[in-house]
Amino acid sequence: MPEGTAVDFAVVAFREDGHWQVSSLPPRAAEDLHSFTHALRQQPSEGVAIGLCVFDDDFFLAVRPRGDEIRLLVSDATAAADWSVAAQALEMVDEPVPDAADDEQVRPGGDLAIFADLGMSAMELSAVCGDLELYPDEMLGQIAARIGFGPQFERAVETDAE
What we know:
By secondary structure, the chain is α+β, with helices and mostly antiparallel strands. Helix content is 31%, strand content 25%.
């Protein structure tokens, strides 16, 4: 398995005073699903908190905790064969880790309707995740723009890169 420290970036998006805010999280917060969810639950929010992280330009993970419920999406379910955090996510939603034979088939895993209440349908999200021309950070950029916090997301990611 690749190193758990290969988190490119981790951010949390949340609503405060009716506006989207996006803040960076330390990469270690996204090294496992439990830590990432815990970090997200610590954020101030008016109900919506979304955690987004990219792992070694390989895949992204989106997490939405709400009470005891956790909604999540892995942009490429085949990443679970190499990444424990992706395997944890698929296990949480009772999806099997794809076989090595399915390794050539890129498909998202988890809740494709994770952003439906925010204006992005499951079909749109599936199309973004299936676009092999995009890197995971570019996929998240499109998702953030569609939901309404594109500029804030871009600033947070640029700050992380510096």
